[in-house]
Amino acid sequence: MPRIALATYDPGTEPNRDRDLPVLLRALTDAGAEAVAVHWDDPGVDWSGFDLVVIRSTWDYAWRAEEFMAWAARAGNATRLANPAAVVRWNTDKRYLGDLAAAGVPVVPTRYIAPGSAARLPGDHDFVVKPTFGAGARYAARYAPGERGTALRQLARMHEEGLTAMVQPYVRGIDVGGERALQFFGGRLLHASRKRAVLAPGTAYDAEKVAHPDLEPWLPTPSELAVAGRALAAVPDAPELLYARVDLVDGEDGTPHVMELELIEPNLFLFLHPASTATVASAILAAGN
């Protein structure tokens, strides 16, 4: 009977926002595992007591990135961590998009503005500013060319906190085709979903956003599957990934481009794809044995 920890965040007095967590715990228990949900930052946990630690919903890590990466290293040294700590460190910083682009993967064009660097912003098209360390559209906003002053104030605020900014063109394909999330588990396509644009014009960068608006099941196209496969193949050192989510949007040429590659704590959307629960549980059990 493998002992498996599903790492999540500490919600305090509020309910845990991970709707999949109790479903997955029940499926693992029914399959014969000893499965528990554990707060990743609980100092009293002995991670070596588990056969496998699966990072599931550590959704507060973006505010504590260095602390989280140190935890991943400790947990990975104590037992098997999925995904591995080296993957966590690489994927935490969204400058990995540059690595994907260098490997020939089509990605949304991205420039980076570190603290102390010149703030060069587009002057002829809508653009998005967000941090390289972030989740759930934290500190992300969409701007028109005439909103440069507001965008500069956002950059100043982010730089005060030591955050490097990403600047991307607003990909108008999102308004038509949405953003498609292709989820992989155990090395195979699990399911796919589509959501509509998260960043509405005029929404403040520090406002809370709806992370997955109008989420619906999606049947990925052959071209989407091909780009997702190229992105996963470009992860450094070809690690064994238990899970992955590849977010795609249509570029100016109408072909799929990677918006984000999520290898840390992607929402699995099992509430939208209940038939996938058994597949996820089986893959976790296989990894824990």
Can you walk me through this structure?
Helix 1 crosses helix 8 and helix 2 (65-78) packs antiparallel against helix 3. 28% of the residues lie in helices and 24% in strands. With 289 residues, the protein is of the alpha+beta class. The chain is built from eight helices and 13 strands. The protein is globular. The model has no long low-confidence stretch (mean pLDDT 92). The N and C termini lie close together (8 Å).
Task: Summarize the model shown.
This protein has 289 residues and is α+β, with helices and mostly antiparallel strands. It is built from eight helices and 13 strands.
Fill in the keyword field for this structure:
single chain, 289 residues, alpha+beta, 5-stranded antiparallel sheet, 4-stranded parallel sheet, 8 helices, 13 strands, 28% helix, 24% strand, globular
Structural class: alpha+beta
**Run of helices and strands:** EHEEHEHHEEEHEHEEEHEEH
Distance between the first and last residues' Cα: 8 Å
Mean pLDDT: 92
Note the beta-strand portion.
15-25%
Cα radius of gyration in angstroms: 19 Å
Please report the number of helical segments: 8
How is the main sheet built?
Answer: 5 strands, antiparallel
Which residues sit in consecutive blocks of at least 5 with pLDDT less than 50? none
Overall geometry comes to globular
